[in-house]
Automatic annotation (TrEMBL):
<feature type="domain" description="Methyltransferase">
    <location>
        <begin position="45"/>
        <end position="144"/>
    </location>
</feature>
<dbReference type="GO" id="GO:0032259">
    <property type="term" value="P:methylation"/>
</dbReference>
<dbReference type="Pfam" id="PF13847">
    <property type="entry name" value="Methyltransf_31"/>
</dbReference>
<dbReference type="InterPro" id="IPR029063">
    <property type="entry name" value="SAM-dependent_MTases_sf"/>
</dbReference>
<dbReference type="InterPro" id="IPR025714">
    <property type="entry name" value="Methyltranfer_dom"/>
</dbReference>
<keyword id="KW-0830">Ubiquinone</keyword>
<dbReference type="GO" id="GO:0102208">
    <property type="term" value="F:2-polyprenyl-6-hydroxyphenol methylase activity"/>
</dbReference>
<dbReference type="InterPro" id="IPR053173">
    <property type="entry name" value="SAM-binding_MTase"/>
</dbReference>
<keyword id="KW-0489">Methyltransferase</keyword>
<protein>
    <submittedName>
        <fullName>Ubiquinone biosynthesis O-methyltransferase</fullName>
        <ecNumber>2.1.1.222</ecNumber>
    </submittedName>
</protein>
<keyword id="KW-0808">Transferase</keyword>
Amino acid sequence: MTTEHAYPRDVRDLYERFPYPLPTPAAEPIFDTAIGVDLTFTDLDGARVLDAGCGTGHRLVGMALQFPDTSFLGLDFSAGSLAVARELARRHGCENVAFEQGEIGGAALGRRFDVITSTGVIHHLPDPAAGVTWLAGHLEPDGAMYTWFYHLYGEYDRLLERRLVRLLAGGDADAGQLLRDLSLSLSMARYGSGTSHSDVSDEAHVAATADAYLHPIVNAYDFDAVAGLFAPAFPWAVATGVNWQDGSGVINVADWADPKYGAITATTLFAEPAARTAFLGLDPRSQLRCLELALRPTGFTVVCGRGASLDRCATRIQRGAALANLCRGGED
């Protein structure tokens, strides 16, 4: 991924036609990433943050509003999406955010960042591993990344439906009509409720459904598989949260009894005492595998870093890196 245009033309065309995540600057910012970042890092004052694949900027502006003493750069290849993002930032008076047109895997930006956020982007890259390498090259030696991915288990049926649409549309059929004929529509609560979207208008729903079913490139992972993307560049990676239909939760492998900040507890996973006792007797990596199998999440968050990056992370993340570092591998 060293060419200036890393994305195929059909990917670029999709987002020019359907700016994502929300197609209008009139929609309010989305704060789910800002909340997740706030629960991950103890102090971002003065930090330089890159939002790689910022789209229309609704999550980036949410972060810029929550962290006014942090400098943000939004990177995206879509001119239409960036036009929405710039107007959104102007409407909300965000002077701590700037935007640049470019691509993950394209031309180097010529600067490094303390933190990189990239939510729902890496799994759409033609070469996700090379994309992670490119992002790692833009981090300071003590830098960290906050990322979000589709989860293989909860997304299995949707990905089969997407493949059917792609095959039928390859015969020059109208993709929009196909979605209607097949009664395919993305639930706005598929990845949780309350913070996922600020706008549930028909226009926003169309953009979300297009991204879900018409995107030419989709990869989905479980915890161990996504660790393979990070292990070559990062000494530690931690699964910090999961999403499912109508719900989301924080992962705290050091304490499966404390529900603070919406953490998933052993009782969340297993109502039956015998199963709960068996779960609590496992090592932390096996507990993570149980969580995936029990919840079958639609998406999940991973934080990774190097150098002294753990020093700026919350205790929950530090304990997660000590107890269940995904980059260490491990046998079933």
